Amino acid sequence: MPATGLDVFDTTLQKSNSWLNELMDLMGWQDRQRAYHGMFATLHALRDRLTVEEVAHLGAQLPMLIRGFYYDAWDPTVNPLKERHKEEFLAYIAQYFKNDPTVDTEQLARAVFAVLRSRVTAGEIEDVKHILPTEIRELWQ
After folding, report:
1. What does DSSP assign to residue 49?
2. Rounded CA separation 85/133 (Å)
3. Which residue pairs, CB below 8 angstroms and at least 24 apart, start in 10-18?
4. Mind listing the pLDDT tens digit for each residue in 21-71?
5. 55 lies in a domain?
6. In terms of Cα–Cα distance, which of 137, 116, 131 is closest to 23?
7. Number of domains into which the chain is organized
8. Is the Cβ–Cβ distance between 26 and 88 less than 8 Å?
9. Is residue 2 part of a domain?
10. What CATH number did the domain enclosing 120 receive?
11. I need a surface site. Which of 16, 55, 78, 120 has the fewest CB within 10 A?
12. Any residues with CB less than 8 A from the CB of 99 and at least 6 apart, and which?
């Protein structure tokens, strides 16, 4: 039986859960809420370092539900941030896990990027990586 009765919502729920399941597998997590926070934090850290145009291009390839939290609280007038270092990128993610210091933010960023790499076109991933500073780009490997 459909969860919502609307195909478009049921489809995005299914796709979004699939993305979170992949992240949970990569991180060895059982907690879907933790995976959501990890995806949310990492996508925001990434989004805020992209040009407005590239934010839109990447957003267009995300499932509707994930796209919604990707754009949540986004202010295109301040993008991209000028931070150039991996430590600043990871510190941004870490602030979402203040009460969970066991989260390895570098492992998390790499895992979210692996999910993106498996579900977004290769050309779009290359465009995103090209915009990022070298230290942050290295997290995609």
Report:
1. T
2. 7
3. 12/63, 12/64, 12/65, 13/65, 15/63, 15/65, 15/66, 16/63, 16/65, 16/66
4. 999 999 999 999 999 999 999 999 999 999 999 999 999 999 999 999 999
5. yes
6. 116
7. 1
8. no
9. no
10. 1.10.490.110
11. 78
12. none
Per the CB < 8 A criterion, the answer to whether 79 and 55 are in contact is yes
Do 13 and 3 contact (CB within 8 A), yes or no?
yes
Phi, psi of 100 (to 5 degrees): -140, 70
Residue 29 belongs to some domain of the structure: yes
| H or E, element range at 54 | helix 52-59
Q: Which residues form the domain of 111? A: 7-140
Compute the distance between CA of residue 1 and CA of residue 12 in angstroms, rounded to an integer.
15
Torsions phi, psi for 85 (to 5 deg) = -110, 150
Domain-located, residue 1: no
Q: What DSSP character marks residue 104?
A: -
Query: Token pair for residue 59?
Result: 């957003």
